[in-house]
Amino acid sequence: MASLPPLLARHRPTFAPILPSCSLAGPGVARLDFTAANPRLSHPERLRDTAVFDALVRDMLTEQQATIGIGGYLENRVIYRRSPHFDDVTAPRSLHLGVDVWVPAGTPVATPLPAVVHSLADNTNFGDYGPTVILQHDLEGVTFFSLYGHLTRTDLPGLAAGQALAAGQVFAHVGPYPENGDWPPHLHCQLIADMQGRWGDFPGVAPASERDYWAELCPDAMLILG
Fold first, then answer.
1. Average pLDDT over every residue of 161-179
2. What homologous superfamily does CATH list for 4-225?
3. What pTM did the predictor assign?
4. N or C: lower Cβ tally within 10 Å for the chain?
């Protein structure tokens, strides 16, 4: 697992864009803060209403004169209090393991390098991934995985486990709420070094106390997002 970040960093200039219709560099992109430090989130329970949450995201973008929001890797967030899906028995989950890109529903999603569809599922709990696709990649003999959550439900019937995808091939689209797990439209992109036998799902949020373990298992997805 330790070899994955430098491997991806070496190949990063060759990767195709995951969001081919968007530029993630430039003045139109802003970092969005979903931690307790953001005064707008002093009452996160209000975000159970997804329309209210969506308006909040749009306001945060407007304030920064941006059209795309990005960030969240290893961010200790308060927004998961909106859903009991994250209230584990041992410890609540609040540490975000992927990178979120807040873009309009319908935005195409492509694979950054050749892939095989590992698994897919519609994770329908409130606050879950909704339609989810996990891709398997092999680079210099190293196998790893990338997860894409909050997709459009109509994308799933066109995919199957074992299906090969070429670098840059569009395989899905960012989904609308409520079918995307009931979130404001965005792509959750996550790197995974070891699926640990899971299929169609993988934790995207973990207990903050387990940060070191999950950071090694799930490196920063910006290594493939660009």
1. 98
2. Glucose Permease (Domain IIA) (2.70.70.10)
3. 0.94
4. N
